[in-house]
Amino acid sequence: MEYYFKIIIRPFEVSGHLPNLILLVPRILTGYSLSFIYAPNKFGTPWTPDSMDLSWFEVSKEFVNHIAYQGYPFDVMPNLFAWSIGFMEAVGGLLLILGLNTRVTSFFVFLTMAMGIFVRKWDGSWDILPVFIFFCVSFFYMGFGAGKFSLDYYIAKRYVN
């Protein structure tokens, strides 16, 4: 079990500051976009606008209805799916910004975005483009981890030999 923990937490070793900076920028932008641009419109966070009238960890009714509109399996438990998507975007984005538990967080972002790409009803718009970008970025970080400028790297160097 400890072996698998080490594999999951230890980022891919990249030497030099420029390559690690290149690993940092997309992770920060993705985490910021998920937490501060997309999540506040559907999920209650401290930074959700007051006009949304959402308490902490509450999902907007419009988003629940949008999830239920997608059909099976989402219409069976739309509240659960909407809450898990909102939570993943808000908290997962923060974890990506910090570089904490990056591989596991990226896995959940990847799954959520895969559902958004392959299961949702196509409306002919380009709204799917950010979903596809998050899908690709999370797939990358599942494999490579967060890099040297992350809490994962600090934890792995300090506590995992």
From TrEMBL:
Compartment(s) where it occurs, according to its Swiss-Prot or TrEMBL record: Cell membrane
Signal peptide from the UniProt entry: none
Name of one Pfam family that matches: DoxX
Keywords, comma-separated and alphabetical: Cell membrane, Membrane, Transmembrane, Transmembrane helix
Entry membrane topology: Multi-pass membrane protein
Top-level lineage group: Bacteria
InterPro entries: DoxX, DoxX-like_oxidoreductase
Bilayer-crossing regions: 21-39, 80-98, 105-122, 128-151
GO CC annotations, alphabetized: plasma membrane
Family under the similarity heading: Belongs to the DoxX family.
Protein name: DoxX family membrane protein
Annotated source species: Maribacter algicola
